[in-house]
Amino acid sequence: MARRARKRGNGEGSIQQLSDGAWRAVLTVGIDPSTGRQIRRSCRTTTQAAAIKALKNLQDSYMHLDPAAPRTVYAYLKRWLRSIRGNVRPRTYDSYKGTLKRHVIPRLGNRMLTDIRPMHLQGLFDQVAEEVSPRTANYVRTVLNVALNEAVRWQALGRNPVNATKPKKAVAKEATIWTATQIRRVLEIASGHRLYALFYLVFATGLRHGELLGLTWADVETDAVVVRRSVSSRSGKVVESTPKSSSGRRIVPIDATTRQVLEEHRVRQREELAALGMTADQQPERVFTNRLGRTLDASNVTKIWHAIQDEAGVPRARMHDARHMHLSYLVAKGIDIRTIADRAGHADEVLTLRQYSHALEAQRKRAAIPLDDLLGG
């Protein structure tokens, strides 16, 4: 029979001598949420001194000096999400929360945080890659890496187990690029819609979806539009945010035809809202609104976008693909990469080169100049 050689205070663990003369360090590390029973960790040693050291190691590995510390993965992630809310963009917060809720908590939520090993996480990433996609698995890995790095800083973990896992090999989804004829066909179909100017503008400027929805008439200048904000929907509410970087806040030049499209849109918008009894001083600041003058919901715009391209008989493309089309055509026209990166709001022109290298094929072929011609001989 084991006999207790030393008893410690509540939460501090204990050291026991066993009937065979060995020693055991025991630490209560939490409560099983499904059974209500205590969860204990122990270590068997040959000497009392070794048991004391083993208990210290257990205490260093677990968070039980703080009774309020989260013990399960679920409890920790819940606390972490609370800590970052308000410190990250709303869209980023929703993305983190949704990813953890869908992919991590159902599989690992009841495990003790300090028991999580790289093997458990690699199994999670493999499963997500198989059931959803490698790209999603890598995003799950990214979110967990951010969350568990914070656990290390909080001294809830000694090390981040994500660092010992490997990302999945993922092939990036290529953007759908329409021919000039297909783009003209889509715009022809869209010309009868009240949001024609929005679809025209994405092809003419390459603005992001949220940047288009965030435009105000004060942002529209004679020969440019100024990107100052982005708009998204969150829990049915409009969320406005500023660009992530200084490169995102930019001036995007426009041509006279694009300016004319915007002016015609403004006239239609005023007439539409005046028919509802809205006076000039009551009309909205936003360039693109719904029929009641309110900020557009991005998902509704996407539905209209898909309906138009289906009617046009072109391959399905995202709104973001239209941005890629604009930038790809600029590359094909020989516009320098630095100018394109500035127009796109990219902080690094290397990113622009990497994303639009496919459009450089014509330039590459033109570079095959006979040596005599190259040397001017």
Explain what you see.
The protein is α+β, with helices and mostly antiparallel strands. The chain has helices at residues 48-61, 73-84, 90-108, 118-131, 134-153, 180-190, 196-205, 209-214, 256-274, 298-312, 319-332, 337-344, 349-355, 361-366, 371-374; strands spanning 3-7, 14-17, 23-31, 38-45, 224-227, 230-234, 237-241, 250-253. α2 (73-84) packs antiparallel against α3, α7 (196-205) runs parallel beside α11 (319-332) and α12 packs across α13 (349-355). The radius of gyration is 29 Å and the shape is elongated. It starts with a strand and ends with a helix.
Number of strands: 8
Shape: elongated
Backbone CA Rg? 29 Å
Helix/strand class: alpha+beta
Spans of at least 5 consecutive residues whose pLDDT stays below 50 are: 4-11
Question: What order do the strands of the largest sheet run in, or round the barrel if closed?
Answer: 1-2-3-4
> How much strand content do the residues show?
5-15%
Write down the secondary-structure element order.
Answer: EEEEHHHHHHHHEEEEHHHHHHH
**Overall pLDDT:** 85
Percentage of helical residues?
A: 40-55%
How far apart, in Å, are the first and last alpha carbons?
100 Å
State the major sheet: 4 strands, antiparallel
Number of helices: 15
